[in-house]
Amino acid sequence: MTEIRVKNACVIDPIRGINGEIMDIAIRDGRIVESVSDRAEVIDAGRCLTLPGGIDSHTHVSGTKVNFGRYMSPEDMRAGRTKRKGKMHVTSGYYVPTTFGNSYRYSAMGYTTLLEGAMAPLEARHTHEEFTATPHQDMLANTLFDGNWAVMDAVREKDVRKTAAVVAWTLKAARGYGIKLTNPGGTEAWGWGEDLTGIQEMVPHFAVTPAEIITTMMRANELLGLPHSVHLHCNNLGKPGNYQTTLDTFDIVPDLNPDRQTLYATHVQFHAYGGGTWKNICSRAEDITRSINSKSQIVIDMGQIMFGRTMTMTADGPMEFNLHCLHNNKWSNHDVELETGSGIIPVTYSKKSAVNCIMWAIGLELALLTKNPWQCLLETDNPNGAPFVKYPEIIGLLMSKRYRDEECATLHAETEKRTSLCALERELDWHDIAVMTRAGQAKALGIVSQGKGHLGIGAEADIAIYPIRTDSVDPAREYRKVVEGFQKTRYTIKRGRVVSRDGEIIVDGANATFWVDAKVPEDLMMENDPEFIKRFEQFYTVRMSNYPVQDVYLPRGRRIETEAFT
Amino acid sequence: MRVILESKVRAKPNLPIEAEAIIPRNFLKGTDLLVYEGNKERTLSELFWIFVEGTAVAPENIEVVLKGDTSRIKRVGEYMDTGSIIIEGDIGMHCGNFMSGGTIEIRGNADSWLGREMRGGTILCRGNASHYCATGYRGEKKGMQGGKVEVSGNTGDFCAEYLAGGTVHIHGSTGDFPGVEMRGGELIIEGDATRPCGNMKNGSCVILGTVHDMLPTFEKTGQQVLPEWKITADVYKGDVANRGKGTLMVACRSLSRQTP
Fold first, then answer.
1. Do B8 and B83 have their domain in common?
2. B147, B123 contact by CB (below 8 A)
3. What sign does the CA torsion over A459, A465, A468, A471 have?
4. To probe the interface with B, which of A68, A72, A78 has the most B CB atoms within 10 Å?
5. Does B137 touch chain A (CB under 8 A)?
6. CA-to-CA distance for B145 and A529, rounded, in angstroms?
7. Can you give the C-alpha Rg of chain A in angstroms?
8. What pLDDT score was predicted for residue A233?
9. Are B28 and B144 contained in the same domain?
10. Is residue B68 part of a domain?
């Protein structure tokens, strides 16, 4: 029995409605409890900011795509090198670091749970293997369904129950957590050398539209009672004028779940562009946030970009091809049979580029114009917008108008004309930041009941103590202190163990992988469906019996079971 | 001042020595330097007989001479900025990495990655150089950016890959893909070359010998007399497959296979 008492903690716990209270936290065997004995180890937080462990609800840290990013950029491995030290493995890499590099740096920033944004079911084993080598964070894997043939067949038949059954079977086979749609239909069209330009266009050879895929999947998701909602990367990412597609998509989202959103739209910064070409691109963040402010059934994340070098990687193959034509640099493209695809290119966001400056401003506008912080979460689509180590700077920018103004002064002159960022006075407070970096994520991902994102009795003891005194630091003026404070926790506690102290990892990790076992009625079990089996054996290059991920790939798997619908 | 380092006979002569400490500037304060042999840290005197002749007040007056079996010594002259190094025999990989000034003379052969990402200074190799002579790091977009590399013999594959500035002069022949991905600078090959300058963006390359397997993505724009080489050369622009604006000049009648 291990016991810890964290005393003198200045706690912000939005889910429980605690905002800046000085209190003690008692931990026993990895969970938060009412009280502990006198023998408990005492950690003095010294009235510093104490939050539930950080949660990243959309990041790319594991799997084939990330690893191919590593293959493609050996030059990145020259950066971020650290030596073996104590319990720490060697690490290297800056925007696509080694798995341990990812894990240690997230841990130093107080993050304890990550959602891998896109896992192709066929390549799930690789993702799970890298999860076990990302030891300090609990992992969840969003599973790609954007071009899944069985799903599209069921959608064409307008059969929500069948769609749900395919999703349930695939999630279980891949040990996935939720439904991810990346450019629904568009990635499959790209497999045939085409792309879609709107949500009402037909996917070639399948006679379904992205709108039908999205709506049917949302209904199937709620029918299955999955903890997370549909997680959508809208069509037309990164194209000037794409905000209309994004608004059209938001308009077809019904409100199906009273506990959480019905649609999680990811990296919306990339989907909020006005204009028609790269020459006249402008911000449409106001239109997008007006839509979000009127629809509580939608949660978005920022997809903030930060200046510097990084790597873009997504299942959205056609978009990466367009970017490749623009940059004329190295590029990778990949097709995952019957399921999805992917593309990867390196990119440098530069302050000299008007387009990049406008993108930077749009991300911040989205966060500042969304009234309810629970509806706009903080992330960079790591590493697409920027490596996650930039999160503290984003927090600083959101909390300080002065910091934004100073940054704006160094940007391309067009930024001010084509975005409204400079006119925004809003400065977020500590509570907003706590919502946007952990509580909001926990709620959106549906893991509050798993004891994530809050510090209530029975919750997992994932705690981040930052060296920031909220009573003496004025974030509007002393934004440097805020940025530095969020870069390195004094203590990161993961499941009741101190894993990181002042940025240094002090124990071997033992994370868990959450996956969803969604139950369906007997007659809808895909493993018994002769038509599904026939098509599977006909088209896949693997046998259906070899397809599911074996339990050996999840040494610390945590199954979340849902109730069967009728 | 002259510092002579004569390599001692080692129990395991194939074990590489990582000797980035061997640059003239470091000898200003004595010869008490550390290098790695395999994964073991060694003092210089454990591996070399050290002789010092004369004194120096400035690093530019220091000459370092390496004698004996030096073929497994890597990274000699890394980040060197002044002075000179003379290697009497062969030298190991990565000699003259990031060099920005001074002179390195190799009287034997050089192993791969000679003068990688060099910024300035001069490297003279009297023998042959192996693969990736005067190039960049894998994945990086700029290779050698300044200075001069001259090789009296032949080089291996990928000579002057990603060359972005400076001069690379090969008196012999090169292997496959010399000057591939060139961004700038000048590449002169007096001997033969195979598939030169693929995906070249800018810069110029002159080949006096025979070109094997000329890439079809170069556009012939005319002929030019090159008085310094006493030849007439066919002039090509390319690599047009990827918007390249480089110049490739090949001595007339030296193509083994004409472009279509």
1. yes
2. yes
3. positive
4. A78
5. yes
6. 63
7. 22
8. 96
9. no
10. yes
Residue of B141, B161, B243 to mutate when probing chain A, most A C-beta within 10 A: B141
Q: How far apart are CA A456 and CA A16, in angstroms?
A: 7
pLDDT of the residue at B242? 85
Tell me the two tokens of residue A40.
């408990």
**What is residue A278's three-state secondary structure?**
coil
When divided into structural domains, chain B yields a total of 2
Give pLDDT, residue A327: 83
- Structural domain contains residue B100: yes
Domain check: are B237 and B146 in the same one?
A: yes
Same domain, B148 and B99: no
Same domain, B140 and B86: no
Q: Do B197 and B260 belong together in one domain? A: yes
Split at pLDDT 50, 70, 90, the class of B259 is very low
Give the gap in angstroms from C-alpha B198 to the nearest C-alpha of chain A. 14
Range of the domain at B19: 1-108
Residue A385: count other Cβ atoms within 10 Å of its Cβ: 26
Quick check: ipTM above 0.85? no
Of B137, B140, B243, the CB nearest to A328: B243
Q: What is the mean pLDDT of residues A473-478?
A: 95
Q: Do residues B156 and B82 share a domain?
A: no
Q: What pLDDT is recorded for position A144?
A: 96
Q: List A138's β-bridge partners, or say none.
A: A113
Does residue B161 share a domain with residue B54? Answer: no
- Contact between B98 and B127 under an 8 Å Cβ cutoff? The reply is no
Average pLDDT over residues A381-391: 96
Paired residues of B215 in beta bridges: none
| Contact at CB, A72 and B138, closer than 8 angstroms | no
Rounded distance between C-alpha atoms, residue A42 and residue A8, angstroms: 10
pLDDT score, position A347: 93
Considering only CA atoms, which of A434, A443, A484 is closest in space to residue A463?
A: A434
Q: A63: helix, coil or strand? A: coil
Q: Per-residue pLDDT tens for B218-253? A: 999 999 999 998 899 999 998 999 889 999 999 986
Mean pLDDT to the nearest integer, A522-534: 94
The answer to whether the Cβ–Cβ distance between A78 and B137 falls below 8 Å is: yes
Check whether B260 has a pLDDT greater than 80: no
Distance from B65 to chain A by nearest Cα, in Å? Answer: 31
According to the model, what pLDDT value does residue B255 have?
59
Q: Which residue in chain B has the smallest CA separation from A73?
A: B139
Structural domain includes residue B117: no
Mutate to test the interface with B, among A72, A75, A348 (most CBs of B within 10 A): A75
Based on its alpha-carbon atoms, the radius of gyration of chain B, rounded to whole angstroms, reads: 20
Decide: residue A507, CB within 10 A, 0-12 exposed, 13-18 middle, 19+ buried.
Answer: middle
pLDDT in tens, A329-378: 889 999 999 999 999 999 999 999 999 999 999 999 999 999 999 999 99
Residue B140 touches partner A, C-beta closer than 8 Å:
yes
Spans of all domains in chain A = 145-156+180-450
| Cβ distance of B140 and A75 shorter than 8 Å | yes
Selected for mutation to probe chain A from B116, B117, B138 (highest A CB count within 10 Å) is B138
For B136, name the nearest residue in chain A, comparing CA atoms only: A75
* B242/A76 Cβ within 8 A: no
**pLDDT digits 0-9 by tens, A121-166:** 999 999 999 999 999 999 999 999 999 999 999 999 999 999 999 9
Tell whether A78 is within 8 A of chain B (Cβ): yes
CB atoms A75 and B243 under 8 Å: no
Nearest by CB: A74 against B138, B141, B243: B138
pTM of the model: 0.91
Q: Which of residues 290-329 of A touch B (CB under 8 A)?
A: 328-329
